[in-house]
Amino acid sequence: MESFNVKTQIYFGDGSLERLSRLNCHKVFIVTDPFMVKSGAIKKITDEVSKGNAKYLVFSDIVPDPSIEVVVKGMELMMKFNAEVVVAIGGGSAIDAAKAICSFSAKVQNKIESSVKANKKIKFIAIPTTSGTGSEVTNFSVITDKSKNIKYPLVSDDLLPDEAILDAELVTTVPNTITGDTGMDVLTHAIEAYVSTQSSDFTDALAEKAIKLVFENLIMAYKNGNDIKARKKMHNASCIAGIAFNNASLGLNHGMAHIIGGKFHVSHGRINAILLPYVIEYNADLKGYNSIDYTVAAKRYSEVAKVIGLPSSNVRQGVKSLIGAINKILRQLDMPTSLKETGIKAEDFKREVVEMASIAIDDRCTQTNPRIPRQEEIVTLLERAFYKN
Ligand code: NAD
Fold first, then answer.
1. From atom 28 of ligand 1, which residue's Cα is the shortest distance away?
2. Which of 1, 240, 344, 372 yields a CA-CA distance of 20 to 30 A from 162?
3. Is the pTM of this model over 0.85?
4. CA 307, CA 80: separation in Å to the nearest integer?
5. 67 forms bridges with which residues in the sheet?
């Protein structure tokens, strides 16, 4: 039996932040990162909350790759404040931290109160300010254990936001490098969901749409951050890809990206982007020239090529043209095309590569990869992506 669901109510388009003035509650806990406060963007949120006569408390300690410690601090503040609604505004880091804060506090609170009254449900609203992770509609939260330098993808339906608000105006301040990184994260989500062992007709439809939107709009958003039409399309693509992978899950690309990000603190989208051509080549596993030689994954990648109008008269050509098109986008985004170019030192990489492969193989995302990898194959893939060979 298979299933598909979208639990999160999505508000989008002009005026969607007005939803925050109609929450019908007294206390709103806002989780965000320091940039939102410094840039004044947070005012758009607090003004709407105030219109609805609710009090608010802003917790703005979230930094990229949020740690267990920051989650615990947020939990303490939120419970003391007695929030009825939690609003996360920021990139994937702020939304993921808020998910963990909400979910863990609910568990603690319910344990304390279970003998006294029924479970209290806190409403959770996610407002993404990057077009990348799709975290506003997923049951994933990626939290970093700084003591071990490992990023853990937590997966539970408790983490799903009740509502998401997509306001592309909030994304116009994203610098072009982050636009590129996060946009490639969207593409990786959609492609991995499409070839996942848990893909279905429902997730395919979403993944195909997200891939098309990225190919049509990412470069425009990168070149001109104020191109609101391209920003809106990328914001939708991010959310659509999020729904796809929330149902189909991801693959080895993310399995490796989590541990590389945990060890070396390079932006998540950038790592995904660098790995993507190598992972496609590995999964497709092109050997012969006859249709019986082609793997299921190779056929799926070739379908992706078809969807975006790339040459794909046979499966081999389809896979190759998809890899070529991704490499072209990387060049247009002025992105490094190897892990080495991101600044990771060769001696550090060599020391960590075997351990990274053994952690990547056990990552939740790797379990739905279309090809089951062996540890030594992951080592080879990591080395290829590091040295660009
Ligand atoms: P991020 O949240 O880490 O933010 C990156 C930088 O962008 C930060 O410095 C932030 O201040 C800045 N920023 C955010 N919005 C901005 C804006 N509007 N204008 C200017 N600057 C802005 O980046 P991200 O790529 O959105 O999130 C990455 C995190 O999400 C990683 O930890 C990754 O593992 C996780 N992730 C989660 C999921 C999920 O489903 N939960 C999926 C993929 C990735």
1. 92
2. 1
3. yes
4. 51
5. 144
> What pLDDT score does 128 carry?
98
* Same fold? 9-171, 177-387: no
DSSP 144: E
What's the pLDDT at 121?
Answer: 82
pLDDT given for residue 293 in this prediction = 87
The CB of 180 under 6 Å from ligand 1? The reply is no
Distance from the alpha carbon of residue 268 to the mean position of ligand 1, in angstroms:
8
Q: Which two tokens stand for residue 250?
A: 């991801």
Question: For position 150, what pLDDT does the model report?
Answer: 85
Q: Which atom of ligand 1 is nearest to the CA of 35?
A: 11
Answer for the pair 33, 63: CB distance below 8 angstroms, yes or no: yes
C-alpha of residue 241 to centroid of ligand 1, in Å: 15
Task: Provide CATH code, domain 177-387.
Answer: 1.20.1090.10
Q: Atom 2 in ligand 1: which residue has the minimum CA distance?
A: 91
- Extents of the domains making up the chain: 9-171, 177-387
**Tokens at residue 111, please?**
């344990």
pLDDT value, residue 151 = 82
Distance CA 141, CA 117 (A): 29
How many residues appear in the chain? Answer: 389
Closest atom of ligand 1 to 141 CA is 41
CA angle at 222 for the pair 10 and 270, rounded to the nearest 5°: 85
Q: What pLDDT is stored for residue 114 in this prediction?
A: 63
- 9-171 classified as CATH 1.10.3210.10: no
Nearest residue (by CA) to ligand 1, atom 44, is 133
**What stretches in the chain show pLDDT beneath 50?**
118
User: Alpha-carbon distance 272 to 60, whole Å?
Assistant: 27
**Ligand 1 lined by 42 (C-beta under 6 Å):** no
Q: Is 64 in the pocket of ligand 1 (CB under 6 A)?
A: yes
Pairing of strands 85-90, 150-155: unpaired
On whether the CB atoms of residues 325 and 212 are closer than 8 A, the answer is no
Edge-to-edge strands of the sheet including 163-166?
9-12, 163-166, 123-128, 85-90, 27-32, 55-59
Q: Measured from the CB, is residue 179 less than 6 Å from ligand 1?
A: no
User: Could you tell me if 309 and 321 are in contact, meaning their C-beta atoms sit under 8 angstroms apart?
Assistant: no
In the chain, the amino acid numbered 281 is E
The three-class DSSP label of residue 286 is coil
